[in-house]
């Protein structure tokens, strides 16, 4: 008699059945990949990113003065150390899980390893990434921003602690509300919960997908314009050692003055806190005449705040000068000249990509029913190769996927140009630079996780049935279709290109010196020496 089980498990020979223990054991290669990447990133990459601002600058410029004495300072130091450890673990885990998910996607495309193993591994990896990207990393970023404003979650007054926790709750609630509201932008978003298999995890993944697509579009547009500006239009003068020494001298003078001001500020705080209680008449007279110590305290707080901003600007300019000096020295070598040639070719490709996307948007708007979006030569060649490997693949759909993947390549290839442009904008918004510096590792891990999840969601709808079944089971059916994602990506990409171009042009006009260059003038240097 034939078995009535729909899966026909009884028809499978015992030797071919995969037991749960065997499937779990076969996930060992992916677990080893996770451990290897996590350890390398934790020991090598995170210290490099977190120490991008030198220690002296961190101690003098970016640590807010403690208004509650030595015990509060020790508590703040301990709190900051714990926060840094948690951030390093979250950063390492996110990067490692992104690497494992990439490995699993490649195994899915090549149909390697046991399907049960791939399913278990993809489900565990995606769930872990979901928790990190939606819960852990946003909480750490909110904590970092609130701490950067001077609020303390422990070790302060009751009012200060309550205010910090209130800001944290409001910030995280706002993030969750905004994150869930993103689902309104999805096509047929109202029906996502009514579909078979639709659940909270699927809804969160779709929202991560659209967020990752938007973020990669913005960053790749910013990177493309930055590469064009730095390699094709920017005119820089030769940086000498004297320029660097003058900028370093200004920074050192500013930091020394900042340390002296903060020491005096701490003395006044202790003096005011240890002052004996005054009577009613003394308080009334003090409110009329003003307390000299309190007035000096407020003046010092303003001076310290200004010196922090100035030290951040000076450190920013010094970093740019050193990077430019190293680039100019490298350009005199054969390797440097070859690298410059590649940079010029890459910048020309960025120009072509921007132009092709603008043409795509125009044609799609005018001929929406008759037009099929073309791809650039690089995307087309890769799509043809993918189709050669799997003839059943949809070349047009894979071209869209490869176009999205190339956005990550553009961002990585123009990383130095992106930093230069970001520093240019940060000169006008030093607070943005300070907040970004404190969250650089978390931001990078967040971008990596969103990029990999968005790629997986797009792959889910493009893989042949005989290859992509595990991805569909692990990620759900979803509503992110390649054609809609392409339109969404192109719109955000062009918007980022326009905003970045206008921002660079405005910064050039504000400087008014006719040179597309970071200021190497002596205004801020001399100011730092005189303070």
UniProtKB/TrEMBL annotation:
Primary location group: membrane
Membrane spanning residue stretches: 23-41, 86-106, 126-149, 161-182, 208-229, 404-426, 438-459
Domain Abscisic acid G-protein coupled receptor-like: 330-509
Keywords (A to Z) from UniProt: Membrane, Transmembrane, Transmembrane helix
Membrane topology summary: Multi-pass membrane protein
Annotated compartments: Membrane
Pfam families registered for this protein in UniProt: ABA_GPCR, GPHR_N
Entry GO CC: membrane
Protein name, per record: Abscisic acid G-protein coupled receptor-like domain-containing protein
Provenance organism: Endocarpon pusillum
């Amino acid at each position: 008699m034939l078995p009535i089980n729909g899966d026909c498990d009884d028809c499978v020979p015992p030797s071919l059945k995969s037991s749960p223990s065997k499937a779990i054991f076969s996930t060992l290669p992916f677990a080893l990949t996770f451990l290897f990447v996590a350890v390398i990133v934790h020991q090598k990459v995170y210290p490099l990113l977190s120490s991008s601002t030198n220690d002296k600058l961190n101690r003098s410029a970016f640590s807010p003065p403690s208004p509650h004495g030595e015990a509060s300072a020790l508590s703040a130091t301990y709190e900051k150390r714990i926060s840094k450890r948690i951030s390093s673990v979250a950063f390492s885990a996110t990067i490692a899980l992104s690497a494992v998910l990439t490995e699993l996607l490649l195994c899915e495309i090549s149909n390697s390893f046991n399907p049960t193993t791939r399913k278990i591994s993809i489900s565990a990896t995606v769930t872990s990434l979901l928790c990190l990207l939606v819960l852990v990393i946003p909480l750490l970023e909110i904590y970092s921003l609130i701490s950067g404003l001077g609020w303390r979650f422990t070790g302060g007054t009751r009012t200060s602690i309550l205010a910090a926790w209130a800001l944290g709750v409001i910030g995280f609630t706002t993030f969750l509300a905004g994150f869930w509201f993103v689902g309104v932008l999805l096509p047929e978003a109202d029906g996502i919960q009514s579909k078979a298999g639709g659940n909270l995890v699927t809804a969160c993944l779709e929202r991560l997908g659209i967020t990752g697509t938007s973020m990669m579009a913005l960053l790749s547009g910013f990177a493309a314009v930055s590469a064009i500006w730095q390699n094709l239009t920017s005119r820089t003068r030769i940086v000498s050692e004297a320029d660097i020494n003058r900028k370093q001298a200004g920074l050192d003078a500013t930091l020394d003055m900042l340390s002296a001001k903060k020491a005096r500020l701490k003395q006044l705080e202790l003096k005011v806190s240890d002052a004996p209680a005054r009577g009613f008449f003394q308080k009334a007279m003090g409110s009329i005449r003003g307390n000299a110590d309190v007035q000096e305290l407020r003046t010092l707080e303003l001076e310290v705040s200004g010196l922090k901003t100035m030290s951040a600007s000076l450190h920013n300019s010094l970093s740019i000068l050193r990077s430019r000096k190293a680039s100019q020295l490298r350009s005199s070598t054969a390797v440097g000249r070859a690298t410059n040639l590649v940079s010029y070719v890459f910048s020309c490709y960025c120009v072509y990509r921007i132009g092709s996307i603008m043409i795509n948007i125009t044609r799609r708007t005018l001929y929406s029913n008759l037009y099929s979006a073309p791809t650039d030569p690089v995307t087309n060649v890769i799509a043809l190769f993918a189709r050669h490997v799997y003839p059943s693949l949809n070349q047009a759909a894979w071209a869209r996927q490869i176009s999205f993947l190339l956005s990550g390549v553009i961002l990585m290839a123009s990383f130095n140009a992106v930093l230069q442009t970001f520093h240019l904008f940060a000169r006008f918004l030093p607070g943005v630079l300070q907040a970004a510096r404190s969250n650089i590792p978390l931001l990078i891990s967040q971008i990596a996780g969103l990029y990999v999840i968005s790629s997986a969601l797009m792959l889910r709808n493009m893989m042949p049935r005989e290859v992509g079944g595990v991805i569909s089971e692990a990620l759900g059916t979803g509503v992110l279709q390649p054609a809609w994602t392409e339109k969404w990506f192109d719109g955000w990409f062009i918007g980022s290109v326009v905003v970045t171009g206008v921002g660079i042009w405005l910064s050039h006009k504000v400087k008014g010196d006719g040179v597309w260059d970071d200021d190497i003038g002596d205004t801020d240097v001399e100011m730092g020496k005189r303070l």
